Amino acid sequence: MIKLVLIRHGESIWNYENIFTGWTDVDLSAHGITEAKQAGSILKKEGYVFDIAFTSVLKRAIKTLWYILDEMDLTWIPVQKTWRLNERHYGALQGLNKAEVAKKYGEEQVFLWRRSYDTPPPPLTLTDNRYPGNDVRYRSLSKEEIPFTESLRDTIFRFLPYWDDAIAPAIREKKRVIVVAHGNSLRALVKYLDDIPDDKIAELSIPTGIPLVYELDEGLKPTSKYYLRGD
Ligand SMILES: O=C(O)[C@@H](CO)OP(=O)(O)O
Asked: Which residues are noted in the entry as substrate-binding (predicted)?
């Protein structure tokens, strides 16, 4: 049986402070580090081993993966980092407090920005210092690939080529895979794997630091899924 483990990074400093994050490269909070270590020790205790890991180019995911692999004595395995697993770009909301934005625009609008399929947050402008085009880590991206904002739909469209070209082939080669990513890049993957309709995806949220195990058939279709909470 094929098992695929997905995990959202541990709590970040901006998760803790309730600030829209997106592509901002915010570090883990102390609690997030604890969550990551706990995830690693649960995976180890349950007998999981990985041959390859995939993560984003954002440190909250990368460091979560480090702590997990360290707990599992697997720091030697190959790690592939890709912008395609980054959090959804939160546009002009990045850096703003979620409660304050809700006060200004209303809960309903903020819920649409946060959880709907195809309502992107307001975009950045080209001269905004939050625009990722000036960040060296994205220098290999074309202008069209660098987002000013993203809906979940946009996130799915930039992530799926990576699933098809890198993650799914690794699974087919019988490699045991862990993916450490973000709330919305994982919602994109879960929507795809579970074939969740566009109008149902708003109901799905993914918690920080808890391994989500997918059991897949040979065609990589899910047969079962569960969280490993260690209780
Ligand atoms: O701020 C963000 O980038 C994300 C994840 O923390 O927030 P949300 O819960 O609104 O998707």
From this structure: 8-15, 21-22, 60, 87-90, 98, 114-115, 183-184
- Give pLDDT, residue 132: 97
The helix-helix angle for 59-71 and 30-45 (nearest 10°) equals: 40
Whether residue 21 has its Cβ less than 6 Å from ligand 1:
yes
So what's the pLDDT on residue 156?
98
What is the distance in A from the centroid of ligand 1 to the CA of 113?
10
Quote the domain boundaries for residue 42. 2-227
CATH number of the CATH domain containing 217: 3.40.50.1240
Q: Which of 35, 71, 87, 150 is catalytic?
A: 87
157 CB contacts (<8 Å, ≥6 apart)?
none
Handedness of CA 52, 182, 138, 149 (dihedral sign): positive
The helix/strand/coil state of 10 is coil
